[in-house]
Amino acid sequence: MIGADEFRTSKVNNDRDLVDMTKRNKKRHRILKKQTAKARKRQRLIRSKIVGRQKTEAQALSKPHDKIAGIHTYLTPFGVVVSEQNPEAMHLHNLGGVQVHRPRIAAEVQVRGEAEKSLRSKHSPGKYVEQNEINHVLQGHFQFYDDELKRIIPMIGSRHFMEFVLSQYDQSCKVDVLFKKSQLSAEDSEYWSGMGQCWRRALKYLAECTCLLAPDEAPSAPEQMVLDLTDRAIICAENLVKLSALSDQTYMLFPDRTELIISESGELNYLDLRVHPEIGSDFQERVRRDLSVRGKYNDLDYPLFDKTIRADELNPGFNEVFGIDYEECFSLFESIFRDVVVQPEAFPIAFVQRDQLIASACKITGASHASITKLIDGVTVSRTNMMAEGRKIWKPKQEHRAYRRGFFDFPHPTGRHIVWSEGMAKECLLMLFRDIAFQHVPPEWDEAPIRPGLAKLSNRCGKEFESVCIKHIKQRGFVIASSFKDGIGQTGSRLLIPKQVGELDCLAYSPTTQQLALLECKLVQSGMEAARLRDDIQQFTNVKNGYFLKYQRKLEWLRANTSAVCRALESLPDAPAQITPTHIAGAIVTLYPSFASHLSPPVPCVSLGELFSEWDRLKSWPYPAGLFPV
């Protein structure tokens, strides 16, 4: 089975970069400027010469304005860009020894100029603060890139282009592993943090667009145009990713706290989206720190990836539906990755006849053709399903996209084929593997015999996560740590917990510090797209039944009934004779950092790794905001 250790080093993370896309936009421009720093120093004379000219002379922005000894300069509305890149050759950027394709500066300058001109033709410089007005600007800018991509894809969409895109995704996986392991240089790390995840999402979208086209083997565009068009396609896809995120951020997360500024002509950053006051600016860093310490406190992200729990709850349903158990289903995909031979052609990408793949899987597993077809279809992106669903990049919750599906259905004269990037396919399977714990399965797999097992698995995972928190708090000197569903204590000292208060996930007492700890343990789905952040926020902040409100009720009840609670705890086996707390220590604990934690929780809302790593560093309860006197 695929392990969660691999998940921590390779999952999409979809795990960390859409909180404030505006900052990334600025960072990208800073990186562009840094790349040309050496060339500027060597060419001070020519720069001063060009800067002195009128900006109206800059017409063909895609062509170098001057060339001297391999230096290419571009006069743009925002100043001079100087580059050592050969504008006629593909640009490969080295990141930690891994070569990745990046659009040439010549293409960046040209497309940027066209986009800015289009924006300024519709909107005046100034500040925009009304939600609908901001989205109107963003959506109009989005339309420019969307129209351009729709023009380009039919010209270059092909099996060749698909394999190029997927091979680049495999390269991105290698870089992302180096980044997460802090094995990139400081410069490469900054570069990757600014563009890496956006580029990866853009590559996925380009693969989806190509799949939708159902194209021929080779591009229809003349060979001399393919490089230019490929660069433009990537630039457009990246900007579609960014603008979708910015629009979602405005509409879903901060509708009343956002302002958009269109600068006067001549500014480098002509479109700037700001959130006031700034919220969650350190969330990315929190996610990264949590990733670095999580394994110390919770190996393999238990219980989300525990094989035994999944086998216990899911094997009966999967056997009934597919004729093989749950573990065999996922082992099948591992065998596909291991056994499929990639042809030694231009790009090392698997391209396999679908019928042959299904027949081989039937032979390996002994399952029926119909069962294997359902399994494969459940992890495949197809033109038919994307068209039926109306695939849009700004709809991240759509099923038929490269999120939990890593295989692509592709036409071929010899019959339908399946094509995939091994890195992307494994990441998507890991996302599916994780989300099954939250009762999500592909619609192709969603049959009645499976559903009871999904519900049991979800409930059991929640209980197991509580047990992990209880284990850690016991290791730090707390006793009688346990969850209490409807009452505390025994016989005459038993105290009933009111229904409106609900179960206490973890209540514990430390004789040493005289603290009574109340932890609320929430195993919730993680995600970094705005729609998923919105769901996360809604779960915690809902004014009727959000987790913050529920915790507040529990805390208030505990504070109002501390003496009775202590007497009830004293009646439990192995409890101290006297429980005399001076403070109540409270926290809401999640497996992964939650963005909702930035929205005024009643107590600290932190991940398991954050709580216990800080506790160990300070050798005491780490959050004064979560301490309440008795």
- General shape: globular
The percentage helix is 40-55%
Structural class: alpha+beta
Please indicate the percent range of residues in DSSP E strands (runs of 2 or more): 5-15%
By DSSP, the count of extended strands is 20
Question: First CA to last CA: what distance?
Answer: 49 Å
Please state the average pLDDT score. 87
Largest sheet: 6 strands, mixed
Radius of gyration from the alpha-carbon trace, in angstroms:
28 Å
Tell me the number of helical segments per DSSP (H or I, 4 or more residues long): 21
Stretches where pLDDT falls below 50 for ≥5 residues? 1-29, 31-65
Assembly annotation:
single chain
Protein architecture, described:
With 630 residues, the protein is α+β, with helices and mostly antiparallel strands. The strands form 6 sheets. Strands 13, 16, 17, 18, 19 and 20 form a 6-stranded mixed beta sheet that branches. Strands 9-12-11-10 form a 4-stranded mixed beta sheet. A 3-stranded antiparallel beta sheet has the order 1-2-3, sandwiched between helices. Strand 2 (71-76) and strand 3 form a beta hairpin. It starts with a helix and ends with a strand.
